[in-house]
Amino acid sequence: MPRDLPTFVFVGIKNCVVALDDHSGIEVWRTQLRGSDYVTVVWDGQALFAANSGEVWRLNPQTGELLWHNGLKGLGRGLVTIASSRIAGSSSDTMTAAAKRKRDQDAASATVVVAAT
Hints:
Helix content: 10-25%
Number of helices: 1
Structural class: alpha+beta
Number of strands: 7
C-alpha cells in the first residue's frame, strides 16, 4: 500500500475478512465470504487474497470490495492455502530485499578490504 494510506492488519475469521487499523485496532471494514468458518488471508505487498471452502477471492485492501472470485470448480470444498509469486513490497523498478542485502554486504566487504590496505 502507498505510504500515505493507513496500515491495516487483515484477519480471516468466521467466513469474513476484517481489516483493523494497525495503530488503534479499530475495525475499518468487513467482507463476508461464502463457505466455512476458516478463512486463509494473504497480503503479498500489493494484493489481498482470501480463501475458504475451496474458493479464492481477491479483495481491495482499502475497502474490502470484491475484485474477483474463483470457485476452483471440481476441486472440492476443503481448506485452501495461498502463495503468490510476487515478492512482498517489490515492483519492477526496485531491487529485491535479498539482492539489496547482498549488494550492501559486498560494498561493506570492499570497504573493509580497502581500509585494510
